[in-house]
Amino acid sequence: MDDVTQVSAAKAAWDASADLDRRGTRHGFFRRAFRWVVHYLSYTFILSRPTIRTSYAAGFRLSVRPTVFHPKFFISSEKFASFLDTLDLSGKRVCEIGTGTGILALAAARAGASNVVATDINPNASLSASENAHANGLGDRVTGVCMNLMAAIAPRPTFDVILSSPPKHAGEPKDLTDRGWHAGPEYRDIKEMFDQARDRLKPDGRIYLMLSSDTNQELFASLIAKAGFSQRKIKEYSLVVESLIIFELLPR
Known about the structure:
By secondary structure, the chain is α/β, with parallel strands linked by helices. The protein has helices at residues 3-13, 29-47, 76-84, 103-110, 123-135, 193-200, 217-226, and strands at residues 53-57, 60-64, 93-97, 115-120, 142-146, 159-164, 201-212, 229-238, 243-251.
């Protein structure tokens, strides 16, 4: 069975709202307080640090610039990278939206992708992605680019695969540093992501998206359906305080 037939069969089997149908877990006072403490400590001591750190995650040596999510403290990136290691992306053109250190872009190249564009609205992140690509011997296949989502990429079917682990929480970000954590009220800052992805994804392409159990999944389901995608949950990582969930999206 060829790829196109497989994709068509998968589309027919999926219900567009079967998996993403929750508003996100509602928590009591102590859970909300715990979340506030986690964000405060993360913002103050990790995201706002003034120096460049070196870290090892998912088999890569990574330079982590100030304001960029640290993959050893925020383990979602390592979990996503481990999932990408199970894929065969040989010869594929890939785009990662919201790259951070570039760890997912590097994992995609390691999985065989021939070209990876790693985008981020944070210039420190796009610079980190390019630096880390060169440091890990993947500079000829991974390019970090500073842009808002995919806005600076021409809307034509360019990519076989699009990856994103967007901010997991709604709320107004304090500054550029906080944009990796908060995506604006009602996820304002990433609402255009799925429409932009649809215009730049090949007809037989796919999107891999990581969300949290705390994310407003009902809202994401509506955005995904509006952009013309079917979706299904393909991987879930249960952690102490939340679950990280990877969804696969296909154009209808």
